[in-house]
């Protein structure tokens, strides 16, 4: 299994530009999570999906952030317009319901730098 | 404040020593999980302990849970340089029919060879 795949691994963009982060969860997993990690705020849950439906987006910081999951094998997190304070590492994770361990599998992350 | 807060924030020990990290939380939980994050990588699940369990072992890992004190500890015995990483507790609780997982602030462990 390839694990959770995220792209790009690194993104450098200028303030005001649109940024799109992509995630491919592990096949068969029906939960997908988007997290943001910074030194100041730690690991924050932004949004999660179950069977492609957004369940809780209360962690999305502002309307500039949006996430979609058009099918079971793909999700995007979009920031428009981007700001320097959005600089962070963004992780996607997935898991399968019905497992005893509730283990989330994390991708390698996308390091976003907004200048 | 965050649901899970680890203590200490950072820990430096010699190889072969034991490392103990603590996690405190505020609300009732279904289970508590521990994850490891190596520098520049995603988190990796280590172990889960359910709210009705008090202790669990997995290899060199030992986890305890005290629901009356709302705290958990992770013990790594006979530490190795490869254990150098950040360790996070994650509490799982019911939220609108789903299980919501909230990660703590993490403990940065350095094992000196």
Overview of the structural elements:
The complex is a heterodimer of chains A (115) and B (113). Chain A has strands spanning 5-7, 10-13, 19-24, 31-38, 42-50, 53-56, 65-71, 74-79, 88-95, 105-106, 110-114. By secondary structure, chain A is mainly β. With 113 residues, chain B is mainly beta. In chain B, 0% of the residues lie in helices and 60% in strands. Chain B has strands at residues 5-7, 10-14, 19-24, 31-37, 43-50, 55-58, 61-66, 71-76, 85-95, 98-103, 107-112. Chain B is globular, with a radius of gyration of 14 Å. Chain A binds chain B through residues 4, 35, 42-43, 45, 50, 55-56, 91, 93, 100-109, and chain B through 2, 31, 33, 40-45, 48, 88, 92, 95-96, 98-106.
Question: Topology of this structure?
Answer:
The complex is a heterodimer of chains A (115) and B (113).
Chain A: E1 5-7, E2 10-13, E3 19-24, E4 31-38, E5 42-50, E6 53-56, E7 65-71, E8 74-79, E9 88-95, E10 105-106, E11 110-114
Chain B: E1 5-7, E2 10-14, E3 19-24, E4 31-37, E5 43-50, E6 55-58, E7 61-66, E8 71-76, E9 85-95, E10 98-103, E11 107-112
Compose a concise summary of this entry:
The complex is a heterodimer of chains A (115) and B (113). Chain A has 115 residues and is mainly beta.
Biggest sheet features of chain B: 6 strands, mixed
State the low-pLDDT regions of chain B, or none: none
Overall average pLDDT of chain B: 92
- The shape of chain A, in one word, is globular
Order of helices and strands of chain B: EEEEEEEEEEE
As residue ranges, the low-confidence spans of chain A are none
Shape of chain B: globular
Structural class of chain B: mainly beta
